[in-house]
Specification:
Layout (H helix, E strand, L loop, with lengths): L2 H20 L8 H48 L8 E9 L2 E4 L5 E3 L5 E3 L3 E4 L4 E6 L4 E4 L4 E6 L2 E12 L18 E4 L2 E5 L3 E7 L2 E8 L2 E4 L4 E4 L3 E5 L6 E4 L8 H5 L4 E2 L5 H11 L3 E4 L3 H7 L5 E2 L3 H11 L2 E6 L2 E6 L2
Parallel strand pairs: 9-10, 19-22
Antiparallel strand pairs: 1-4, 1-6, 2-3, 2-5, 5-8, 6-7, 7-9, 8-9, 9-12, 10-11, 11-14, 12-13, 13-16, 14-15, 16-17, 18-20, 21-22
Helix pairs in contact: 4-5, 4-6
């Protein structure tokens, strides 16, 4: 800044000071007028603040309604239509105490259950079991002390216990068409099993999943490993550990419970050979004939139904047809008694 500018600024300040001194003093409002002004300003402020709060509440309500509508749309997308229960299986046989798990994790015993729908969880007690005809084909059996949830038309979730699956429906099952099943998956906490046309057993117990294959192949997998198992193999999955694979038998032993849970078969008017094929499959045996036994089995016509374990029914039916049988290395040989 130059000296001239400084002098000019000083003169301006002096002139402003003289003007202020010469100006008349401003009148001071009375206390009553000041109070009125204060009340008016305060009332106006309250009105403005109220309008702002109202606008905020409206916005909050609108946002909440938008969120609720969004959640309703999501839930409604995955919810089955009101009143619709999607059946996944019909019950063919029950033994002992069978329970349905309620919404509050309570067990409700049922004596008149005829079908199973998506979302239901079945629990079996000691010395209990259930046999199911799967809606898309095949047979599912549930062992004692087992808890299983039916989560979709093509899968179940095994919480604990043991289940058996046979992809082939028997032509002797009452009300069931003999067809092969479509996709079927057993899920567990430790992995899952997917069949490709087979008989297999899955067990979830003791922090691991054990899969045994009688016929065909299954894909066994978890987040860390996968393995394709074939007939006579038993695969164990437990966390990060590599699958443990053992060679085991396909008959007797751990398979006996599944045979005991075989549902009643209607054989009225059917040839004996149909029954023999069913019984040998249930027992994990290969059927073979000796001598003229096959001709006898094709000609003999059965009556009534069968509601006994396959081994016992086999003994009785062959005795009535004057046929003998023996088992050798997984093959059941049927022959003439003479």
């Amino acid at each position: 800044m130059t000296d001239i500018d400084s002098i000019a600024d000083a003169r301006d300040d002096d002139m402003l000071e003289r003007l202020l001194k010469e100006a008349a003093p401003r009148p001071v409002p009375s206390s009553e007028d000041a109070a009125k002004v204060h009340r008016a300003v305060h009332d106006e402020w309250r009105k403005v603040a109220a309008r702002q709060r109202a606008r905020r509440k409206v916005m909050q309500y609108a946002m909440a309604a938008t969120v609720l509508l969004g959640l309703f749309a999501v839930f409604n997308t995955f919810r089955a239509p009101p009143g619709e229960n999607i059946e996944v299986a019909s019950i063919q046989k029950t033994v002992g105490a069978i329970y349905l798990l309620g919404d509050a994790e309570e067990l409700r015993q049922t004596d008149d259950l005829s079908r199973v729908v998506i979302g239901q969880t079945i629990v079996t007690g000691n010395q209990s079991g259930i046999a199911l005809a799967w809606s898309d084909g095949g047979s599912v059996r549930v062992d004692e002390n087992t808890r299983v949830k039916f989560v979709a038309r093509d899968r179940i979730y095994l919480h604990s216990g043991r289940v058996y699956f046979d992809s082939e429906s028997s032509m002797l099952s009452s009300g069931v068409t003999a067809t092969d099943s479509g996709s079927f998956v057993v899920q567990t906490e430790h992995g899952q099993v997917t069949h490709t046309g087979t008989q297999f057993m899955t067990q979830a117990r003791g922090g691991k999943m054990i899969v045994s294959v009688r016929e065909g192949k299954v894909a066994v997998a978890n987040d860390f490993h996968q393995h394709t198992a074939g007939p006579g193999e038993q695969v164990t999955l437990a966390g990060h550990q590599r699958p443990s694979v053992l060679r085991t038998g396909v008959t007797g032993g751990n398979w006996n419970w599944a045979a005991r849970m075989a549902p009643a078969m209607v054989v009225d008017g059917r040839p004996l050979i149909d029954f023999l094929r069913w019984a040998s499959r249930e027992l994990g045996l290969t059927l073979a004939f000796e001598g003229g036994a096959e001709a006898v089995a094709q000609q003999a016509i059965l009556r009534g139904s069968i509601d006994k374990e396959p081994s016992e029914a086999l003994r009785l039916r062959l005795a009535s047809a004057a046929l003998a049988w023996r088992i050798d290395e997984g093959v059941i040989y049927i022959s003439n008694e003479n």
